[in-house]
Amino acid sequence: MVLVLNAGSSSLKCSIFDTSNMPQRRASFLVERIGQEHAHVESTIADKVEHEDIHVASHGVALQWVIKKAVSKGIDIHKIQHIGHRVVHGGEYFLQPTRVNKAVIEQIRACIPLAPLHNPANVQGIMTAMELFSQVEHTAVFDTSFHQSLSPERYLYALPIALYHQHKIRKYGFHGTSYKYISERCKKVLKLSDIIVCHLGNGASICAIENGASVDTSMGFTPLQGLVMGTRSGDIDPSILFYLLEHGYTQEQLVQLVNKKSGLKGLSEISNDMRDLHKARAQSTKADMAIRVFCRRVAQYIGAYYATMSRCQALVFTAGIGENDGPIRDEICSLLHVPSLRLDPTSNVQKIKQDIQLISTNTSHIPVYVVKTDEEFQIAKEITGMSGADTKEQDTFEAKHK
Ligand code: ADP
Questions:
Q1: What is the DSSP letter of 113?
Q2: Which residue of 51, 125, 172, 313 shows the fewest CB atoms closer than 10 Å?
Q3: Reported confidence tier of residue 396, pLDDT bands at 50, 70, 90
Q4: 43 and 75 in contact (C-beta within 8 Å)?
């Protein structure tokens, strides 16, 4: 069995998979608001969902609670042989899943300046799990790895090149585990390997995939660049920040502004959640404008990628908004004239039941699909499929960092 952990700053997502064959999910847990008075847990075991409010002060306590819950439901946790950890930023060091040891943890810590909002929680999750499960293998899977195939002309910013060499300032891209999952599903099921994927959740990005590999993506040095997100601004003119600095904002306030107070929430002054904006749209011009800015930005990126790809066989929507929000998919597609996309009104608004669903008509220039993403499954698959080549890579890594 495999346990997959995804530790956020105040949340912990865990999934337990049977791995005798292809990974099969036995249970999943989402613990939110860790450290607050009441944390909320959603447990899904054998398709039964339970909700509980509990008190958990730390990720360690949350993980212990989850393990106890799993045991109480008859899951034999002694069968867990391998733990997979999602890590957001692996810099240029990690090209593939990597067995965790002291040197690897140090390297993940070294990436904290590149992802100060994410990597500290990931390191904490790893340390906690290694204490609780000291006898099993731990492997880190990085959101950035899938985008290491970007060419320098795509990942370099037009800044003095010394900044790349001294500080590793470049585009890294994120949501890589999700893109890899989608890419492999599309290749296997649809026989398509040149696609544009829109991962539209609270964090949102887009990726151009050619021959199964990422060739460009909208997030950059950090997950702040690109699309309009729940609370992140996405692309802005960097001069705005200098201007605000001169007008009394502190650096910390600016970090909060662009990461936590912008995006859908900042524009609408209502919510970062697209469902709330739909409800408010008829009465609120701000909610309406937030949705319009969001859709326009996605359409612009699709157009840019489509025009520069050598071939694009399909457009794919995934993640919370991408999988569930037919009106948003429709609004984005209606803004695109090249390629001209024709969504089927019936299949686009139906609740998506299959994990891959065609939502365009056969007159559409290219087909449009909704594909349900599953990052935890992908992590389970990658860590159990680790081959001798991965181990060799690991040896090289350790030798280099002794
Ligand atoms: P993340 O993993 O980045 O936190 P998710 O992929 O869970 O985000 O997506 C969250 C977003 O998806 C929210 O804006 C939410 O409104 C939207 N969303 C989730 N479910 C639905 C739904 N059934 N209909 C419309 N939007 C949804």
A1: G
A2: 51
A3: very low
A4: no
Confidence of residue 118 (pLDDT cuts 50, 70, 90): confident
Would you give the DSSP letter of residue 343?
A: B
pLDDT of residue 401: 34
Q: Nearest 5°: phi and psi at 329? A: -60, -40
Q: Which two tokens stand for residue 1?
A: 């069995």
Q: What are phi and psi of 314, to 5 degrees?
A: -165, 155
Element (H, E) at 149: none
Residue 44: which H helix or E strand, with range?
Answer: strand 39-45
Q: How far is the CA of 279 from the centre of ligand 1 (A)?
A: 14
- Mean pLDDT of all residues belonging to the chain: 92
Specify the residue with its C-alpha closest to ligand 1, atom 26. 321
Given this model, what pLDDT does residue 56 score? Answer: 87
- Which atom, in ligand 1's list, is nearest to the CA of 204? 3
What pLDDT score does 390 carry?
38
Bridge partners of 358, per DSSP, are 369
Residue 52 CA to ligand 1 centre (angstroms): 21
Residue 59 pLDDT? 85
Interior angle at CA 301, CA 295 and CA 304, nearest 5: 140
Question: pLDDT by residue (tens digit) across 232-269?
Answer: 999 999 999 999 999 999 999 999 999 999 999 999 99
pLDDT of residue 60: 85
Of 118, 46, 51, 131, nearest to 86 by C-alpha is: 118
Q: Which two tokens stand for residue 281?
A: 């749209």
Q: How many residues does the chain have?
A: 402
pTM of the model as a whole: 0.92
Residue with tokens 């997979």: 84
Find the 275 Cα to ligand 1 centroid distance in Å: 8
Q: Distance (Å, rounded) from C-alpha 288 to C-alpha 303?
A: 23
Ligand 1 site residues (CB inside 6 A) read 201-203, 230, 273-275, 319-321, 324-325
